[in-house]
Design brief:
Layout (H helix, E strand, L loop, with lengths): L11 E12 L2 E12 L3 E5 L6 H8 L7 E6 L2 E2 L5 H6 L2 E4 L11 H13 L16 H10 L15 H14 L4 E5 L7 H14 L4 E5 L3 H7 L2 E6 L2 E6 L1 H4 L3 H7 L4 H6 L2
Parallel strand pairs: 3-8, 3-9, 6-7, 7-8
Antiparallel strand pairs: 1-2, 1-4, 4-5, 9-10
Helix pairs in contact: 3-4, 3-5, 4-5, 5-6
Length: about 260
C-alpha cells in the first residue's frame, strides 16, 4: 500500500488560474495563469499599463478578482482578507516607503519585529523591554549591509540605503513569499547594483515575485520571467528565451526594446 508523504511542500508556492480583474468594462488583468516555483526569483515585467500593479493588488487582497483563483502553498486563498493572507507569509514591499523617517534605522527594524509579534501598538512600553529584539534587528541589518547605519536617523539615509532598510523591515515580517514592487525604481546605477545584489542575497531560502522595469536587474537575478501586456501573459520562461520572443520585442518597441535585447 502506498502511504502518501506528509508535509512535502508543493513545488509551486503560488498559482493563479484564470485570474481576471475588470473595472467598469476595462479588463486590467485578463485570464492570468501564473505559477511561481518555490525558491525562485520570478520577475513580472511589461510595458506601463500592462496590469502588473493590479495583479499585485489581487495577490495581496487589496482588490477582489472578477474571476479566477489564487492558491498559496496548495490552499485556495482567493477570498481571504488582506490580513489573513499576510499572516500566511505573503509580504509586499517597496511600493511606498515603509519606514518611519524620524526613527533610527535600528528602531525601524525593531518596529517591524514588534509588528510581527503582534505588539506594534505598544509604543508606550519601556525601552528596556524591547532589548530582546535588538539582536534580531541587528542580524537583519547585517543581512542588508546596514550595520554601520544602525543609529542613523532614517531621514538622513541615501535613497538606495532607504530601499535596503525597506528590505530589512520586510524580512522582519518573516515572509515566505516576498512581493517586491519596482525595487530599483528611481535609483542611480551604483544603488541599482547594490540593491540587486541584496535581493539575490536575501532570496536564499525564500521565494520572490518582483515587478521590475530594469532589464539588467531582471536578466541578472531572475530565474523565470513572465511578461504581461494589456493584462494578459504574452510570454513566460527564462530570460534568454523570453528576450527573443517576437511578441515581447514588439511590446517593448519604441520604449526599451534595445534595453530588453541588449541586457545580459
Amino acid at each position: 500500500m502506498h502511504i502518501p508523504e506528509r508535509n512535502v511542500p508543493v513545488e509551486f508556492i503560488l498559482e493563479t488560474r484564470g485570474l481576471s480583474k475588470e473595472f467598469k468594462g476595462f479588463v486590467a488583468v485578463n485570464q492570468v495563469d501564473l505559477k511561481v516555483q518555490r525558491g525562485h526569483i520570478h520577475a513580472l515585467i511589461g510595458p506601463n499599463g500592462a496590469g502588473k500593479t493590479t495583479f499585485f493588488n489581487l495577490l495581496t487582497k487589496f482588490l477582489p478578482p472578477t474571476t479566477g483563483s489564487i492558491t498559496f502553498n496548495g490552499v485556495d486563498i482567493t477570498h481571504e482578507k488582506p490580513a489573513q493572507t499576510a499572516r500566511r507569509g505573503i509580504v509586499r514591499s517597496f511600493q511606498i516607503s515603509a519606514v518611519f523617517p524620524h526613527m533610527t534605522v535600528l528602531e525601524n527594524v525593531r518596529a517591524a519585529l514588534q509588528r510581527n509579534l503582534g505588539t506594534s501598538f505598544h509604543f508606550w512600553k519601556a525601552e528596556s523591554s524591547l532589548h530582546h529584539l535588538h539582536a534580531r534587528a541587528r542580524e537583519l541589518l547585517a543581512e542588508v549591509d546596514l550595520e554601520a547605519f544602525a543609529d542613523e536617523l532614517t531621514v538622513n539615509l541615501p535613497y538606495g540605503r532607504k530601499r535596503a532598510l525597506e528590505l530589512a523591515t520586510t524580512l522582519a515580517l518573516e515572509p515566505e513569499l516576498m512581493l517586491l514592487d519596482e525595487p530599483t525604481q528611481g535609483m542611480g546605477h551604483e544603488d541599482v547594483d547594490r540593491v540587486t545584489q541584496l535581493i539575490k542575497k536575501v532570496s536564499v531560502g525564500r521565494t520572490i515575485l518582483m515587478v521590475e522595469h530594469n532589464m539588467n536587474v531582471v536578466s541578472s537575478i531572475a530565474d523565470r520571467i513572465t511578461v504581461l501586456q494589456r493584462g494578459a501573459i504574452i510570454a513566460d520562461g527564462p530570460y534568454a528565451e523570453v528576450s527573443k520572443n517576437p511578441l515581447v520585442i514588439e511590446a517593448y518597441m519604441g520604449t526599451s526594446n534595445t534595453e530588453l535585447v541588449g541586457a545580459h
